[in-house]
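Troubleshooting: if your tokenizer reports a length mismatch, compare your output against this known-good record of 178 residues.
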Amino acid sequence: MSNEAVVQQTAGDNTSTAASSDVDVIDSAKYRKIDAIIERYKDKPGSLIPVLQQAQDVCGYLPHAVQRYIAKGMRISPSVVFGVATFYSFFTLVPRGKYIIRVCLGTACYVKRSEEILDKLKDELDIEVGEITRDKKYSIEAVRCLGACGLAPVVVIGQDTYGDVAATKVMDIVKKYN
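Known-good structure output:
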């Protein structure tokens, strides 16, 4: 298998605001790192999840070309790799921004107008939920519960949790991550 692959981001995938002619290149240096990961785990039963986790750390996500590469290297079916990658929520098949902004839409947050926060982020960043900004800095995710109901409405950016967020102030928080 080639140590270089091009992963096409198409408008139909709803993965990016970038034009369908834009591509992400998984370069040979990243494939060498993935080779080392596969080599470390390939003969260990049940090792697919750590391989996928580490490959995602290398690439930032798990494009189909990387999944096929891992399947070949570990001598397993690509459908098994895809099944695991899509089953667990901590894996992503699409690029994410450097900063992932999670907006809670659980009941406590929703009744305190978290949907307005989400709308403000979408308008200001010019992306929809699940997309990435053109500069690859931000992604937005809508989540059902962040487990911080007493702080509602809640927004999490990276590992930082913000409570009692107002739609009028959310961009002041986001600007801290420039």
